[in-house]
Amino acid sequence: MNDRQKLIVNGGRRLEGELRVHGAKNSALPLLSAAVLAHGETVLHNCPALTDVDAACRILTHIGCKCRRSGDTVTVDAANVFGSEIPDNLMREMRSSIVFLGAMLGRMGRCRLSFPGGCDLGSRPIDLHISALRQMGARIGEEHGFLECDAGKGLHGAKIVLSFPSVGATENILLAAVTAKGETEIHNAAREPEIADLSDYLNKCGAKIRGAGESVIVVDGVERLEPCEHSVIPDRIAAGTYICAAMITHGELILTHCRPDHMNGFLQVLEAMGARIYTYGGGKMYITGKKRLNAPPTVRTMPYPGFPTDIQAPFTALCTTAEGTSVFVETIFENRFRHVPELVRLGASIKTEGRVCVVQGVRRLSGAKVCAAELRGGAALVVAALAAEGTSEISGLQYIDRGYECLEGVLRSVGADIKRV
Ligand code: UD1
To answer: Ligand 1: does its nearest atom lie under 6 Å from the Cβ of 309?
Structure first.
């Protein structure tokens, strides 16, 4: 059980070497849900081995799909889908299970699921998902903590204007729209690379989606989707975390199987701090920061292509030892500084006030016992521990394992002194 395990880190080792970036969690999950729409066997390559991916496969199996993994390839046979309910225990495992809603409505015409769980980052409403699906003809009721959704005689296209470019809502609308009758327009759609990846998969299956990755997406509904083979895009957040880990140790890294073009918002800030970055063709990049980095200009988390909220915590950890004062404004989630008190235990000097966090760079951190309270905040503790003098003990690994494939093994391969006990 990973909730009893700990990471033991002896800090102060400089990271240096080459790492392969695994497939994106935030792409794999909507892709697995999209496989419900394809009548047959979807083959997903570069699918990361994460507990959240396992949770998605359990949901698929529960509704009648056959899932199997071989290496980094996951196969989902959705020839016979018979279930239209996701039980409470599976929904609670992760918030992204809400992305099954659009796919199941499209395939089964109905869906019953409880309100989703997941990392506690403050209130995470799903009003945008529900309102959009209602506009497409779904009847959705809420009873005893469950959502009862019924597409009646089938969903129809609609013009949907999102008040915020929600990633999950955009995905659910896409999933519902591909087999709805007529045309759906999504205005103010999320532009994250994971949306374009989902659309690429669906189009290979026969869907007609234009504009994914831009603010206006247009979908022409088709009768039915056939399965295909697809490769999940690289995980830009895992890549960013490895970079923070290397930079806090004044190290250098070559990343392979990555997409630097998906990381511009983040890489520009690192360059402004003094890191040097070289990108090559074929998904390869080199980054070096052999001297103490300067504090960045004020960082504001924003929807893509802005600075990603998911990298804010590991990046805050990096800034704890930067020269000068760093200011972070978290605009996406209201409760995303839960790693801060733990970073302070490691010797960081940080103050938070509402959605603003101010980091006064210190020369040294010192090892301590700390506990992860959510996924990216947990990764932040690992980043800080790599630079802290002495030994740190990090618990709460069940969160870290949701989004990083064997984080300790990856970091050890480039020189970190880290082990799981
Ligand atoms: C996805 C990512 C998550 C990332 C986030 C923002 C996955 C599995 N998760 O989460 O890692 O941090 O995008 O980049 O891809 N909101 C509403 N009403 C809604 C939906 C969202 O008010 O119906 C608000 C949320 O409370 C939050 C903001 O919109 O404040 C962003 O949420 P959203 O883009 O939907 O994030 P997720 O899809 O949950």
So the answer is: yes
